[in-house]
Amino acid sequence: MRPVYLDNNATTRVDSEVLQAMLPFFTDHFGNPSSKHDAGAVAGAAMKTARQQLQALIGAKFEHEIIFTSGGTESNNTAVLSALYVMPGRTEIITSAVEHPAVLALCTHLEKTSGIKVHRIPVDHHGRLDIDAYRTALTHRVAIVSIMWANNETGTIFPVATLADMAKQVGAIFHTDAVQAVGRLPMDLKSTAIDMLSLSGHKLHGPKGVGALYIRRGVPFHALIKGGHQERDRRAGTENIPGVVGLGKAAELALEGMDEENTWIKSLRDRLEKGLLEHIPRTSVNGDPLARLPNTTSVTFDGAVGEAIELLLNRHGIACSSGSACNSSFLRPSHVLEAMHMPDTAALGAVRFSFSRFNREEDVDQVLHVIPGIVRKFQGSARVPVG
Ligand SMILES: *Cc1c(COP(=O)(O)O)cnc(C)c1O
User: Quick one: 294 and 357 in the same domain?
Assistant: First the structure.
């Protein structure tokens, strides 16, 4: 049976068109864009095309509002650290309780080492941001707000355009980790107040180790990585040209196929959810029922252990993800589900399935064929005898 890959929020397959676009830049077109000869010019021109492809996907006003980085993690770190540097009088950060570790771990580090105050805005049981808490935390002490566009575990979408407008009122820089949203949701950054945005190649069928940071023109910026004059002094180091070309191609494909692809993917996702809810007792879907990515479902099988389901499905050739992390001897529930006020036992029973353009109906059928038996074993053994 063909492997069933339903872990596309972890990483995606490189599209063959992306790979084909990249290959010449390892061989014939290996030049360094900083060189003045023709080989350099070819590489430079390819970077320009890639920047324009990304510009179109996110609706940036100017192509040079985009710099290339090593991925989502670097983009997030760059945004937050830059804002603290350029706003020395401001010592607070606002983020959410459900961010990716690429933001949360940095915030925790800053809190411990530099006396920065971090506001982690809570969410409700659907994963929706507490707007009142956000409004209260927004003061002129805040250097940067970093709140994700869409959550990687539940797919919940935050109203970032509104949040950015609110941040503007107090003069804070607004950054969004849009790694899961770019290529899935239509974007027009020029018509929003979003100052910075992170994206990553390998989450949209591009290569790993390349991403981008959008920095609105006029927003003060300080480079994280210092060295040569690449990226107009905003990110030093010889550019990853094959990666950049791949990311550009991936952006072009995502923009071209977005509507059709989302319709298809959502139908697969909904078919899976419907099947799971119908056939497995004590099953519920996590996240905002109204504002959710079309490709993501986080499902709790109450009384079961998500990590064990993940491993057992793997034996059937099915790849999915449980948000829980095994820390030496005990299982720790996902911080996202914990923040959604889910009891530990329920949070440990969660499994995430995330789709891409490469999934088929048979993938859903295969999951629905094997998973009821797996969950039943747990739920059966967990039953407490009464009396
Ligand atoms: C994957 C992911 C990242 C990290 O991106 P990398 O390119 O792997 O560093 C950051 N934020 C979110 C929401 C992600 O899903």
Answer: yes
